[in-house]
Design goal:
The chain is mostly helical. The protein has one domain (7-279). The chain has 13 helices and 2 strands, in the order αααααααααββαααα. It has a two-stranded antiparallel ribbon with strand order 1-2. Helix 4 runs antiparallel to helix 10 (224-267) and helix 5 packs across helix 7. The relative contact order is 0.15.
């Protein structure tokens, strides 16, 4: 595990937040959620009777969380490395990305839980299709549309209100304000440039006025706050709430309901086809499979079903 070695940042963090050893314990706990692959299965009978509608959702909810763990680990380690080499500009950029992913994960965990409770299989299918298909291949998914990152940032106000029973810093728009502040330090804005100005000196004498501005990458500790704040809450709430919640309310809920869902679609095969037609562009997926040297999926489905019935 990479640890912070920048003593100025260590002192600031432990004075204003908590012991870093507690954070390191949380980072190591992320390993418990880390997977190197997603394996999803369906029987030949299920494939024949209802197609891949249940399979797609199952693969999608696993793929989303498995890749999310890797993204969080990557961002957290990169922030630590940036802090250690005093590259605060990169630490701030990465902090913004960390906050964006955290907000989106909180939002999507809640939405997926609600879709499962409400048995909204169309929305579950569309979410699975989006997160499993890149923007370069967006034509494969029907209505390939991403949720705006600000929806995730705004949701954090609700998320923390539900946990703390009050808004952070008693502001209903705290995380939007925080995101704007971090963005100003990321964009080519005045705040982004002035973070390197750390002293100012002026002199008046008989010949006139002289002003001297001093610059350094040893930025004022004021600029540590947003990095430290986001680093602190994300590590804490990922392992104490969000990942366990996703595992329990999304993965376990789906696993418990899977047989019922398959049975439901077996009774309503037309609805299964309708969802697939509204989710995946069959023509485009067939073209992709052909380029990869793979057979038509419908041909495989029926040939395998035929084999087990002969």
């Amino acid at each position: 595990m990479i640890k912070i070695t920048n003593q100025r940042f260590i002192n600031y963090f432990e004075k204003n937040f908590r012991k870093l050893d507690e954070v390191y314990e949380e980072i190591s706990f992320l390993e418990n959620f880390s997977q190197t692959k997603t394996v999803t299965k369906m029987s030949n009978k299920e494939s024949h009777d209802i197609g891949s509608v249940v399979f797609n959702v199952e693969a999608g909810i696993h793929e989303y969380v498995d890749t999310k763990v890797l993204k969080f680990k990557d961002l957290i380690n990169s922030i630590i490395s940036s802090i250690n080499i005093k590259s605060y500009a990169s630490a701030i950029v990465l902090t913004r990305a960390l906050l964006e992913h955290f907000g989106m994960f909180a939002l999507k965990t809640t939405e997926l839980e609600k879709h499962l409770i409400n048995k909204n299989f169309l929305k579950l299918s569309k979410e699975s299709a989006y997160w499993g298909i890149s923007a370069n291949e967006s034509e494969i998914a029907i209505d390939h549309k991403r949720t705006h990152l600000m929806d995730g940032i705004r949701y954090l106000n609700i998320y923390f209100f539900e946990i703390w029973k009050r808004y952070p810093e008693d502001s209903k728009t705290y995380f939007e304000e925080l995101y704007d502040e971090i963005s100003n330090l990321t964009h080519p804005a005045s705040d982004s440039m002035l973070m390197y100005q750390n002293d100012y000196e002026e002199k008046w004498n008989s010949s006139g006025y002289k002003a001297t501005m001093f610059y350094s990458n040893e930025v004022n500790e004021y600029f540590f706050h947003d990095i430290a704040y986001v680093f602190n809450i994300v590590n804490n709430f990922l392992v104490t709430d969000l990942f366990p919640k996703y595992k329990d309310k999304v993965i376990a809920k789906f696993d418990n309901d899977r047989d019922y869902i398959v049975k439901f679609f077996s009774i309503n095969p037309d609805y299964a086809k309708e969802i697939l037609d509204q989710t995946i562009n069959k023509k485009k997926i067939d073209e992709k499979r052909k380029k990869l040297g793979l057979d038509d999926i419908d041909k495989i489905r029926y040939e395998n079903f035929k084999k087990i019935n002969n």
